[in-house]
Structures are given as structure tokens and as C-alpha cells.
Amino acid sequence: MAAGLAVSIRGLTHRYAGQGAEEHALDDVALSIDRGVITGLAGPDGAGKTTLMRLMAGLLKPVSGEIEVLGLDPLRAASELHLRVGYMPQKFGLYEDLTVMENLVLYADLRGVTGAARQAQFERLLDFTDLHRFTGRLAGKLSGGMKQKLGLACTLVGQPELLLLDEPGVGVDPISRRELWRMVQALAAEGMAVVWATAYLEEAERCDALCLMNAGRVIFAGPPGEQIARMRGRSVLACDIRGNRRHFLRRALGLPGVIDGVIQGDAVRLVLAEGQAPPMAELGEDAPRIVPVEPRLEDAFIDLVGGGPDGRSALAGTLAEVALPAHIDPEAVIRAHDLTRRFGDFVATDHVSFSVRRGEIFGLLGPNGAGKSTTFRMMCGLLAPTSGEAQVMGIDLKHSAPAARQKLGYMAQKFSLYGNLGVERNLRFFAGIYGLSGRSRDRKVAQMLESFELDHYRGTQAAELPLGFKQRLSLACALMHEPPLLFLDEPTSGVDPVTRREFWSHINALVDRGVTVMVTTHFMDEAEYCDRIGLVYRGRLIAVGPPDDLKRQVADAALPDPTFEDAFIRLIERDDAARAAAGGAP
Amino acid sequence: MWRRILTLIAKELAQLLSSRRNVAMLMMPLLVQLVVFPFATTLEVRNAAVAILNEDPGAEAVELVNRIAAASAFGTLHPVHSEAELEQAIDAQKALLGLRIPPDFSRKLLEGTPVTVQALIDGRKSNAAQIAFSYIRDITSTFADERAGQVLPARIERRNLYNPNLDYKWFVLPSLVAIISTIGCLLVTALSLAREREEGTYDQLLVTPLTPGYIMVGKAVPGILVAMTQASVIAAAAVFLYGVPFTGQLWMLLLAMFAYALALSGVGLLISAISASQQQAFLGVFCFMVPSVVLSGYLAPVENMPAALQLLSAVNPLTHFIALSKGIFLKGFGLAEVVPAVSALFAIAAVTLFVAHRVFDRQARS
Fold first, then answer.
1. Is A425's CB within 8 Å of B11's CB?
2. Residues B298, B189: one domain?
3. ipTM reported for the complex, 2 dp
């Protein structure tokens, strides 16, 4: 095992051409990366993770500072470095029109790996990634998780000493993510230096070493356990909450002793300020049981950046209560009945039925390609069902789509507003599209600018906004017509934890007013915000229920207190097992 | 609902004018083409080089050579001394045209017997050489007629109708009105919709009460506005800057512009309907633009095309608009001439818009 330093960085600063003198992509970064361990490079989008990766791979020239990779200067010894470093960017350059094997051969050719060495490596890599069965399949036809594994295999051709993985877990479901993790662990155990960049702090928590970044700076470097230990005693779970847990959360966040809080199933998880005892006096009446729990890295992150938002939403005061017309069943404001969608022979959504009641947050979860997005798109009218019904507010989307669409707000996963228009123009546009005009339009736009604190950015082009404000603007545009239903498609992927909490405080305010929310997500802790979860797998709804119920369903002696991710994985494994038992293909 | 469409149109225009680069993208080709096109694509021959092998020492031959030298079409005259040299001059592209005056030219001319002057044309530059050759033929026949000393019983007097001095700017500018506005309109309709698809804003629009039909109108109207603005700028420049006469009615030209822009926006929307990305839309625009200019009659007369291509040319909106533009500018087109062509444009618009709407609608429902 080759122990020792793989990367050493000192005083590294980088600025991109378009950035002003005060802005930095990286600001005075110092870091060392050891061989034989996985170093987590964690932080929200825009924290500087990719820039740092590219500097280590010798693809960028730093503005100032020192960087040494495997004893080499990444720029001067670039050609040697490229043979010894494996870099897997976020969108790895797989050739989708080539087969798995052809992709591997291509990367072997590029790295000059030939003859017997090539055969041996291919054998090992295909074993390792379990892609033997798929060597003849086109890379474009692989699932997200398999693509990522193939990307990893291609990166590993030539046996690099340093492996740089830029957010390998993005768009990969928890099962594939676990597999990928196990593979990388095995590589590190053989002595490879691995850098795993991620925006998921739960992922970073598992790394051997951690470099926590925010806004171009390293805010912590060391073992993640150190941060967890520091927070011990400050993370608590308020159980057996009486009344509305969202109201409870808001009240708790208003207390000076509480720096952060999230909903976790039926309970609320709080992080206390340093040296604070649980505020039993203020909260005890509604939550008789407040118990300490194991801290998470996210708790530490929130603490390091100075605490989360206070849970209040300026939106709350401006919203009218959603009134349901008498003929609509409040138990089924959104209803799917035997919803089925085929693409050729492939059944993406297979006889899915569920209903969502007024004021509920309903989450759709599932592995990639399971049919979650297809179902979601049918429910908001972007895709027509092959058979079955999709109804919102009692209106069938098939028959009077425009009328139904006036009832729903939609926020896409990707920022999808007009980037080259100003904030105010975007707001005015969506107000106009939803039929507001004249003074009511002016009033609504002004109100949104105020509620979401966008006033300052009024004239800024939407594309130039900081991520958190883009998020707010998207939500503001989706709420322009005060829809009773809100559809959110992975609304907070890539967003930092603070912004995510703020986003959910707005959602909580909306739900309080009777807005019904349907959301898809990859974040397990976001799933915990939902009142109910529908788990989609192979096009079918395999489980529906409150998050805590789903957890209880999988709890056993070996795992008495499963996390939601455990529940997710076990429910899917059970479904696979049931299928196998029934004689179907696994 | 019209308010929502107005909102869409206002948004589209705001996006177009949002950056200087966009405005420059729309205006620069206009200005550049306006300055360059009329000069670069002139079909006139000026200052062409001619090689002359004069084997006749007589005064008549010298007079003919002088006449040619005096014509504005011809610049340098290369005197050569053998047939080989004559061929070589053309071969080396020193001359566009070679002329051989036989030894008995002066004698036969004075005798009144027929005499032949041989011309060698550079076939590689057939167009320019043909034109130069026709100038030479004009000069020699006039010359011969004078020498013959007798009035021929009948003579062809050529006069170029509508463009008496064969000023090629007159021919090019009205066509340019059509060609430039084509680019602007297609960019707005085809590319901007493809961009919305790429950036996900199209989905965002589809979840609003807007239907694909409204979204199409929201794209078509700005496209028409852009095309008509560009066409008007060139038309104005043609009249006021280049002095091209305007013999028709202004409202007819505007009507023709509108009909053409409508047909184009149909084509643009159809392209965007079948393109998944901006890149594809861009290729689509090119696949339409190039053949449409070639088949429009701008470069070669439609009458000379094979029947199949003539048919294609008839469904090409540019053919009709170039004919209309030239007609209204130069030939004083009246209603009788304008109506059929404008109707053809409206028919093309109806078909393309209908098909584009079908495609969009089907996509939105699938």
C-alpha cells in the first residue's frame, strides 16, 4: 500500500474571466489529500468543488497559489499527470452510440493500454463493475447508475493513482449509489487516492477525510467524525408532537436557542446553539419527549455557516386560504386512477392509482427510470396517459387541459425561466400568461418581489442570479396565479442546505393555507418533509404511506431504527424478491 | 386570451432586444449585406481584359481595336502575336476573352464581302465571358454596319424594359428585400422555440393555460414583425440610398411582405416543431435557406429549370416574394399581378402553419 500524500495545495486562488476582482471561484484554499482514503469534497453548487477538481487534473491554470499532484506540477507535467490521474467529470464523456466494450476500448486506446495488460484490466474492471452481461449494449441504453459505473470503469483504465470523481452520485438512485460507493471504497483500500465531490452531505459523512467548502473557501478540513463529535448533544429529536408538526417547527426555529430544524417523518429534528439545553420550557407542552440523536454532517455545516433560516415565510401573510368548490372531494384534489403510460413495448407507468388530499405534501420517490417522472409529468399535463385518468381539482387533464393548468403551479428541476430577461420581467411575463393584467398584475408582481426579497435584484437578468434567488424566483413565478396545487420536480437538487430549508419554509407556509403539493425528490431527508410518500418502482406504486410508516414496515431486530434510505432500499429489494418468487424476471 | 398572447409577444420582443448582441445579430447582416451585396453580386462586366491577335495591318482593323479599347466594359488590351500566344493568354487567365482579326479583315470589309472575326471565350468564367462576348459582338456588328455603307432593311433596336440601363442594383436590391428578411424571420421563429425546448421553458409554458396554438402565435408575430422591419429598411435604402425606382403601391409591397413573413413563420415553426435542439433547428434553417434561394429565380431563371424543380420553385415562398418585390418596385404591378402571388404566399402559410400546429399539438398530447 502506497501511503503518503497524493495532493498538496497551498494558498490556491482562482477567478474566472467573467468574475469581478472581489469574486473568487476559489479563495486561498489549502488542502492535502492522502493516498489510500476517500476524501470527500463537499459543499453546495458553486462552492468551488469542480474548479478545485479541474485544477488538480491540470485542466485549469490557477490565478495564484501552489498545487502539487502526485509530486508533479499539474500544468508543466500535464501529459505525465494525465496518465496517472483518472478524472470523471459530472457528465462523463461516454459515447452513447458506442457499446460498453467499445467505450472501454476507446479509453484504453487513449491511454495507450494495449495487449495482455488491456485484456487483464478489462476483465478486472468488468468484474468489478458487474458490467460483463452488458458489454454489447449501447452506452446510451444503460440506466443512470450503470452509466456511472461504466464511466468509472473507463476512468480506471490505465490504473490511475489518483481518482477524481465529480459528483458521481448525482442522478443515481440510492441503490446504485451504494454500489458505487462500495467500489470506490475497494479502490481506496488498494492504495488509490480518491476524491469524491458531492453536494449531499450525508454522502460526505461517510468519507474517511473531509474537505467542506462554501463560497470558494474551505470551511473545514479533517475527519468528518470531528465535526460530528463537536455537534454531539446539540442534535435532538422532538417526538410525539401534539398538533401540527409544521407549526411546531416554525415555533422552534423562532427560539434563540435553536439554530436549525427539519421535519423528520412525524417528528421534528432540531439543532441547538452551543451550550443550550433543549428548550423544554417553550416546547415541552407540545412535544413531551425531546431526545438526543446522533448529529449529522449537515448539522455541522449549518452551524459553520451561522445557522439556518428562522422558518418564517414572508409569503404566509400574503396568501389567501385556498377555497375548494363544493363539488370537489377534499380527500382527492389530485387523483390518479389506473394511470398507465407505454412507450412502445415499455410500460413506464403501470396502473398507478393514488389520491392526494387538500393541504397535503405528497412525495413521489423511486430509482432512476422507475417511472416516477413519467407519472409526475402525466399528473401536471405534460404527458398524456395511454390509459387511465389523471385529475386535478376534479378536472380531467385529458379533456380540459387549459382549465386544469390554470389550477396548478409547476416548478421544474432545472431552472427554466428566461435567463436573459430581468427578474421583474419574468414575473410580469408569468403574471400575464396566467391572465393577470393591469393593476392586479402590478400588485401581484410587487408582492412577489417583496415576499421573496427579490426587490434588490429587480432588473438583474435571471441567469445572473445567485442559486438561492433563482430558486425563489422560480417559486414566485409558479405561484403567480395563486394555484391551489403545486407540482415540484426535484425542486432542491444541488441547492445548499440553508436555501433548501428556506425553500421548505415557503412550502410549509403554502400548505398551511391549504395548497396541495406534489413533489419528486432524490433527497431522502426531503422525503421526510412529505406527509405521504408514494414509492414507484418498475412503473408501479409499490408502497404508499407516511414516511414513518414506511420505515416501520422495514424495521426488524437487525435494524430497529431504519433511516428512510434503508426503508427505500429494503422496500425495493422486497419487491424484487416477491417478483422472483412469483416467477417473473428479477 | 388575446392578453396572454400579447404577453407572449412582449416577452419575445424583450428577449430579442435584451442584449446588444441580439440586436446586432439582427441588424448587422442587414447593414453588411446592404453595403456589400449590390456591389459584390453585380452581373455587369467592367474592366475585363481582352487579348487581341491582330493579323491585319489595315486601318479598319486598327479602328475596331480602338473601339473595343474605348468601351467601358474592357480595361486592358493585350496585343498578342500568334495563335499560341492568344490561347496562352486565356489559359493563364490574363484575358477573359481572345479576339483574332484575320489578315484580310480590312480588305474584305471594304469590298463588302462577309468576314469573320474569331473570338475565344474562357469557358471557366462562362458567365462573365458570355456577357463580355455579347458586348464585343455589339461593337463589331455596329462597326461592320457602318462600314458596309448601306442601311440594312431591318435592324434590331434593343431596349431593356423596366431597367433601361441594365443597372444591376435595380435587379439585386428588390431581391435583397426578400432574402434578408428570410434570415431574420427564421431565426426568430425556428431557433427561439428550439431554445425554449432546450432550456425547459417550453415545458414551463405548457403547464400554463397556454395551448401550443397560442405559443405558436406568440412566436409567429414577433417573427413577422422582425421580417417586416428588416424588409422595410432595405426597401427604404433601395429607394433613397441607391435610387431604385419604386413604381408600384406601397401598401401592396407591405401586403406582400406580410404574406411572405407569414409563410416564412410557418416554415420556421415547422422546422422548430421537428427539431429537438437548437443545433437541429439551425441545420433545418440552412436546409431550407440554401435551396430556397437557388430555386427562387434570383440566381437562375425558373423557366430554365426542369419541370420537377419548377414545381418546387412554385411552393417556395421566396420565388413569389422576389417576383412581387421586383414587380412592385420596377414593373408597377397592379392588383391583377399582385393578387395571385400573394394568394400563393397565403396558401403556403396556411399549409405550413397548419402542419406545424398539428405536430406541436400532437407532441403536447403525447
1. yes
2. yes
3. 0.77
B6 touches chain A (CB under 8 A): yes
**Quick one: what percent of chain B has pLDDT higher than 70?**
91
User: B206 and A381: CB-CB below 8 Å?
Assistant: yes
Q: Is B206 on the interface with A (CB under 8 A)?
A: yes
CA of A431 to nearest chain B CA: how many angstroms apart? Answer: 9
pLDDT, one tens digit per residue, over A405-417 is 888 999 987 788 8
B7 in any annotated domain: no
Q: Is the pLDDT of residue A586 over 50?
A: no
**pTM to 2 decimals?**
0.79
Q: What is the pLDDT of residue A498?
A: 84
Q: Which amino acid is at A349?
A: T
CB–CB contact A420 B15 (8 Å)? yes
Give CA–CA dist A140/A154, Å, rounded: 15
**Contact A406/B at CB under 8 A:** yes
* Inter-chain residue contact A433 with B211, CB threshold 8 Å: no
- Report the CATH fold assignment for A230-312: Alpha-Beta Plaits (3.30.70)
Any A CB within 8 A of B10 CB: yes
Whether the Cβ atoms of residue A516 and residue A485 lie closer than 8 Å to each other: yes
SS (H, E, C) B59-126: HHHHHHHHHHHHCCCEEEEEEECCHHHHHHHHHCCCCCEEEEECCCHHHHHHHCCCCCCEEEECHHHH
**Cell numbers linked to B68:** 473595343
How do residues A318-375 score in pLDDT, each as one tens digit? 777 888 888 888 888 999 999 999 988 888 899 999 999 999 999 999 877 788 888 9
CATH superfamily ID and name for A5-222: P-loop containing nucleotide triphosphate hydrolases (3.40.50.300)
